[in-house]
Specification:
128 residues, mainly alpha, two-stranded antiparallel sheet, transmembrane helix, DUF3040
Length: 128
């Protein structure tokens, strides 16, 4: 059942308010959709897992340790490929307007790790 014009308008207002209030949360929720090609990655990874399992069982049955290790490595690679995702689209921070700005450049010359942590702690304490 399609939304009425009033419901559609209210939904758009709620989305804009969410982006304005918490853009980081809104971008995290928007990124939760399945990406195109995820099914193909799962199929290829699953094939690698099954192939690795067959090679592992064959290596153990013939008492051939290197073949068993190769099967295990194939299973591990298939699993890693299946659960990994290819990053697509802009990478950065979502503004309140819904646009994406690139992440800030990191300047490594600001001091030691502990000095940077102390600066962050002081900034957070001052915000309260």
């Amino acid at each position: 059942m399609p939304l009425s014009d009033n419901e559609q308008r209210l939904l758009e207002q709620m989305e804009r308010a969410l982006y304005a209030e918490d853009p980081k949360f809104a971008s995290a929720m928007r990124g939760a959709n399945r990406r195109p090609g995820a099914g193909r990655r799962l199929a290829i990874g699953g094939t690698g897992i099954v192939l690795g399992l067959v090679v592992l069982v064959f290596g153990v049955a013939n008492n051939n340790i290197p073949v068993g290790v190769l099967g295990f490595v194939c299973m591990l690679g298939g699993t890693a490929y299946a659960v990994s995702s290819k990053r697509r689209g802009p990478v950065g921070v979502v503004n309140a307007a819904g646009t994406v700005r690139p992440p800030a450049k990191r300047n490594r010359n600001k001091g030691s790790f502990m000095q940077r942590m102390e600066q962050r702690w002081d900034r957070r304490r001052d915000e309260r």
